[in-house]
Design a protein that fits this description.
The complex is a heterodimer of chains A (283) and B (422).
Chain A lengths: L1 H28 L6 H18 L4 H23 L8 H27 L12 E4 L2 E4 H23 L1 H11 L1 H6 L4 H26 L7 H15 L5 H20 L5 H21 L1
Antiparallel strand pairs in A: 1-2
Helix pairs in contact in A: 1-5, 1-8, 1-9, 1-10, 2-4, 2-8, 2-9, 3-8, 5-6, 5-8, 6-8, 9-10, 10-11
Chain B lengths: L26 H26 L4 E7 L6 H4 L2 H14 L3 E3 L4 E3 L1 E7 L4 H13 L5 E3 L4 H14 L3 E3 L5 H4 L6 E3 L9 H10 L4 E7 L2 H16 L3 E8 L7 H10 L3 E5 L2 H13 L6 E4 L4 H7 L7 E4 L10 H11 L9 H18 L4 H10 L1 E4 L2 E4 L11 E6 L2 E4 L18
Helix pairs in contact in B: 3-12, 3-13, 4-5, 7-8, 10-11, 13-14
The chains are: A mainly alpha (283), B alpha/beta (422).
Amino acid sequence: MIQVLISGLFLGSVYALLAVGLSLAFGIMGILNLAHGSLAVLAAILYKKSLVFFPFSPWFFCVLSMPVFLAFGFLLHLVIVAPFRNLSLSASVVASLIASLGIALILEDIFVWWQGWEPISTYIPFPTFNLLNLKIPGLRAVLLGMATATIGLSTIFLKKTDMGRSMRALAQDKEAASLYGIHPGFTSMSALGLATILAGLAGIFYSSLYPLGPRQGLDLTLKALFIVVAGGMGNLRGPAVAGLVLGFIESFAAYLFTYTSTDTIVYSLLVAYLVLKRSGRHQ
Amino acid sequence: MLKPKGHPDSGRPFFMEGGEMKTYNNTVLFLWSIAILVFCIMTVSPKCASAEMPKEIRIGATVSMSGKFSTEVGPFKKLMEAYAATINRRGGIYLKSADARLPVKFIVYDDKSDGPTARKFYERLISVDKVNILLGPYSSPVTFAASVASEENNVPFIAICANSHKIYNRGFKWIVCVIDSAPRYTHRYWDMIQAEEWAKTVAFVVEDTLHPQGVYHGAKKLAEDAGLKEVSLKVLPADTHDFTATIVKIQDVSPDIVFVSANVPFSIAFMRQARELGLNPKEFHVIHHSGVFKKGLGAGAEGIIGQSYWTQGMNYGNPELFTEVMKGSGISLDDFPWAPAYMMAFEVATQAIERAGSLEREKLMLTLKRLRVMTIGGVVSFAENGVGTINTYPSQIIGGKYNIVWPPDVATARHRYPNSGN
């Protein structure tokens, strides 16, 4: 049972990392980036392809790939945010949603064409440790630490740096932030860049632990969206906690019931949670 | 102008109105007609006959060059082309009806590992490409769909890696399969376990798709017959990514053998996590432990036992020809362990054509049904429902190489047990 709990913790940490990026983009720019999961798959493919040239460890590749994913974020901003900035809030949200869905679908086709249908797996052998009669897979433990550190550093970045404060100011009031000399275009571009880096890291971690299908991007986005909705949009702590909870639920559902029942259980709990939360607010 | 009697213009009554029946009264014209007919028979007919004379033997197939099965057979178009090139260098296949050796040509499409796509291409192979005989695609689900095209159009169809009994229980007349049915897929492994008398319990992990399910149902019965007790059964979807719950439950029952009936991606994911979480039975059996599996697991693949159709050192049939074809194709047997099964299908098709002496479909199918031929994997013949006789041998990864470990007369190494590799 404790082994299942530990496994849920590892899985949840990857989900949390993925969801934090989605939440960041939503909180600062108000856009729901449906290509978020596909960017994670892109990172996994790039990592796999790079392994042909050099046996990078996941952590080393994470550092190397950050500027690349920052650039991807900037590019994505030009397609799913910048063209719609003069529209009304609701119209720009819908336009960004559709544009990002289009990007996700295009990326999925490119992935299949580029690397075929076979699942992407970037597993590297790593020792397993014994701790109080429990098996702790070393790779998962390292990735858990990295995911936690990444979320922690992102939080510090948002709270302690000028750019982070600018992002938060933009999230609170775009016009007021502009009056204080914050450039909305560059700041939101940076925010999407940061969110894309987080998606990329999640993809690298995920493919190191589990096989990731080339068309699994939208599934990951859906899962991240579930976590963001459950944890609260526009903050980092809520999705991080909700991500861990999802990992636990999935692991325990597979242990107590069947693997096929996990999605049913997870989404039933989400609906129940949202209904209860909403009725609680009304009261 | 000649007018038959009874024509309205002749002023005589019509035949149907009871008048006399007269046709032509010009005997010269009649004789000319006979002469033209004789001329046609003597000149045109031989030309028609020569136009129907085949110039080549056309074999049609689809290969999963893309999609989920591309890891198993992706480059097999090259294998087919290498076989054709090798046979053609030797003069081709002798066809008695043509009294000549004819070159072989393979026409191959990418079925994208998808049944409906495969069926569409098999229909094209029959109607547009006019192939003489068909080789099946990879896997039971794709073959299940594709074989309908051959049955509807009455074209001989040699299935290869497709042994689900659901394919052969439909009463189809135009299909044979090189390999034995899925339930018997691992029978030699269980024969070995029974003979060695070491293992007592088995846990099954089964991917919920056609072939792994078929193999499991057979293995369950064979394991029982070998005196083993099934202590755990986990049937999981093909896209399962986290096996922790399954592994923890298997650890609780400590089986002697963990038997993984699954395709390669599923098997790799399961085995990685099993190694990570310290699942340590006396033996892992993974039905598909190809080179992709071995590379995916690295050192973790050591000691794992699986099934192989052929390894270096087996001496049935003409292994030199197979070696030549493999060399010509540039395909590695380690990476693509189903290549021998395809080679056996090529040998069966070649023998069937030579023995039928004709490309006439009915004759070819009848010959196939009665065929008994030695191939690199042993003797192939077919049951009434089309199921073949070729079966796999238990092979163990020892020192990074595949070794047949049973039966003793074929074995290239001794079975190592217990040998979990941990």
